[in-house]
Design goal:
40% of the residues lie in helices and 25% in strands. It is α/β, with parallel strands linked by helices. The longest helix is centred in the N-terminal third of the chain and has 28 residues, at 60-87.
Length: 299
Amino acid sequence: MDRFQEMRAFVTVVDSGSFVRAAEALGASKTAVSRLVGDLESRLGTRLLHRTTRKLSLTPEGQLFHERCTQLLQDVEEAEAELSAQSGEAIGQVRVNVPTTFGLLHLAPLWPAFMAQHPKVMLDVTLADRLVDLVDEGYDLAVRIARLQTSTLVSRQITSTRMILCASPEYLRRHGTPAHPADLARHAVIAYTLLSMGEQWEFEGPQGAVSVKVVPRMRTNSGDTCCAAAVQHQGIVLQPSFLVGSHLASGALVEVLPAYRSIELGVYAVYPSRKHLTPKVRALIDFLVDAFRMREWPP
């Protein structure tokens, strides 16, 4: 049996934590994967895994061999990537980090189309709202929604989104409609804790820039939670158009103070370096730019 197949089966079993999940990842049967690992142990003359009905664990020899196999497999993938870079073919794994809500609402529906276009690319997509370190954590690409500051990273804008002040019609009926941003200080506000400007909300109005210090009734690191509270008439939110657009369209929320526009954020594909951009990463960036080219958020 091919040694490379044996090592790949072994590493996949360890990384996935079970023979069943490894079989799913490799597109093989559990019996075939078990046989590959068994053949590997027989050929080496040593046990690599402790097997029980509940879990798998590495022997000391297995720990050492797993580290070496992982490095060897990564070297093979990098070698293939270098060759594909010469041919321009998108091939290999792409590790992507995306914001949770944006990833679920607007990126999850796109991944199948990308995989259909590039069958030799394997996507590894992580959803998280924290700011990951692309280099240290081994990501090829991240999607970030921000006013980008100076960075050692390289970025390409995919689209943009505007922060929209909104509330439910019922909340406004009960508590009145603000006539000026300063009125927000007297209203129930549902605040997003990861907002770059914090609780000093900024607007551009007919007479220029205006900012107001809000006093939240509720704080949360989830934009979805903010919207859920607003739809249930609990306060005013400042959330991106990509998130509140459907609520505005249905009438569940209405824009407040439309003459005072808040900040606009870019949606960027961010990657460590332009110098060695592989075809697989370039293909994904181009795909995302094209996918959002015709996307229209609320104005």
